[in-house]
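Hi Y.,

Following your request, here is the sequence exactly as I used it, all 414 residues.
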Amino acid sequence: MNQRPIGVFDSGLGGLTAVRQLRRLMPSENIIYFGDTARVPYGNRGRETLLKYARQDLRFLRSFDLKAVVIACGTVSANCLEELRRESAAPVTGVVEPAVERAAAATRSGKVGLIATRASVGSGAYERAFRRLDPALEVRALACPLFVPLVEEGRCRPGDVVIETVAREYLAPLRETGVDTLVLGCTHYPLLREVIGAVMGPDVTLIDVGQEAANLPGPAGGGGRPGGPSGGLGPVLYQRPGGEFPAAGLPVPGRGGRGRGGTGGHFSILMMMEKEIILFVRGEQTYDSDSPEVTELATEGRMTMDNGEITLTYQESELTGMEGTTTRFTIRGDTVTLERTGMVVSRMEFKQGERSSSLYETPWGTMVVDVATTRLAHRLTERGGVLEIAFTIAVNHQVTGENRFKIRVKEMTR
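Below is the corresponding structure, written out as tokens. Let me know if you'd prefer a different format.
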């Protein structure tokens, strides 16, 4: 009897949905799980970066003398599976093909929806698998990049206004197409099954990619023979986020700095208004000539409008690397000021075509930060709006990258 363990890895905790199914089907197997929470999410990374991360994850897992590997990450499965199979002595299973086979068998109308990360959808892997299996199927794919960070923050339960708002906005186009089967193309997404199911309705069958991968026959699937006699879940290993900043020495724009605003023209609002809002943030950071690293997040916040001045305040989370920090954007005319207090203390000022300098105080030291704003546009009313900022950053007077973020603000409805 082969007593060696099965290795499972994902970019975070989402792959535990596959582990749960493996444990149900093979209770005597030893399973070693690795969740790369230090670099989650994978879904906005380029293919070369994904392959580098996946190789590092596999290299670590191979130190446990595995008999099989399950890539419980839709993004890696869609972009890197063939390379990883060629490079691995142990069998490697992904999540794409098993989920596609299950969805094709489940659909009654021939209309199938797919939701996944931006990198998975962009790879076209799911659509190619559907075409190989049944060219007549009508497949509609949508990227839902905010789902993973929200799950990692624990915002996955019915009644959470942020995840419910995001889910309704993402899934509305799929509902309109009349799909009767929906592939949850990322192993984080089954943790949103109740939320997604409530939006799509009871007539839509939800396909869990992690569960379908675990159901496969063979040493890495539910059809394999039970392994080690001791059973139980082996060490569950997480790479927790450290306290280090990215290479630029600053939090990734969009993960650490979020705001929005606008005066709506020259008319002054001679009143005080405060309300709860939801912010949708897309941040890009580019070093040298590399492709930009994209991050997308959603969070709750508060907006005040007082005599023409607009302020946004929200609390940072563990995902931004600044948990315990309060962030505040203030819009006054053609100037936007970003202030942080708490674990990180900083003040940055943005004004089109101008430069500003400030100190950036963190638990890891104090830096001089120079900001040159190349674009600043904001349109905001009491019902929401948009803020767009593009700027370069120099840390200790050395330019480290170009940054851009776009933030949408939406009125919170309960």
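Residues 161-177 form the longest helix (17 residues).

Thanks again,
Q.
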